[in-house]
């Protein structure tokens, strides 16, 4: 009896949490993008050294373990930051818009189908309703994959230019270390297509990475959300501590799953984008074979887990707060 009561309390808390969620139509988009651009740019600046560390590990060889060893910490670990910050703003606008619109559309229509099936599916109503716990991770996963893919037209040139800057030798960087110089050099030697080197593989990488991250995050958060409800019978632990636990656990679970499962693709993509010469001379299969022969497919995994875990924890928490303060009825 006690167990049943506890389950009912958890289900009520879960239902209340869902009803209180902010929908895309509730949000003031100007406020969302304005505050969000500042917030995410600051986070990008803070975490850029982890990105640099990951890329340096991915491109390192046995004969060249480091690509630069002189200069200040800022000169070394903030290379490529300007191009990342400037291009990441429009990329995030596209990403967030696609994510929220798609997630809300899929979630709403899927629940409508499950709880109000068409006459032809009426006989399977109970079986359909048993699938309701999977709706949130399903809609989050599909939306996350589509959001990741939609922003690649901006992300790929940003990655190509910033990665070239990151791996430059110190002497070359001092002479030609600007995004404009790198872009001109790429166009002169490879044409405009050089700015989109690895585009296909980037799409192939971002789709599973985005899908796995958002599906894992949404699924874990959906299962743990009742602990963060003020009415849940855990008065000894403050609500804010429970909310933090749910947020961090969800984000790091997502980061761990996405990093491990997509690291080989990310390493291959990075190697292709920073390699010298025209893209026609490189293929994902050839790069994969080379990396596999040297056990290099998982190079940079720990920095990537750290980056995705911290980024995901802070970003997801900040995004939930950002959606709240961007509500049209906020402070009214």
UniProtKB/TrEMBL annotation:
The keyword Membrane applies. GO terms for biological process: transmembrane transport. The keyword Secreted does not apply. One of its GO terms (cellular component) is membrane. Its main location: membrane. Residues 1-21 are annotated as: Disordered. Residues 12-21 have a biased composition (Basic and acidic residues). Residues 1-11 have a biased composition (Polar residues). It is a multi-pass membrane protein. PANTHER family: MITOCHONDRIAL SUBSTRATE CARRIER FAMILY PROTEIN, MITOCHONDRIAL SUBSTRATE CARRIER FAMILY PROTEIN J. This is Mitochondrial carrier protein. It comes from Skeletonema marinoi.
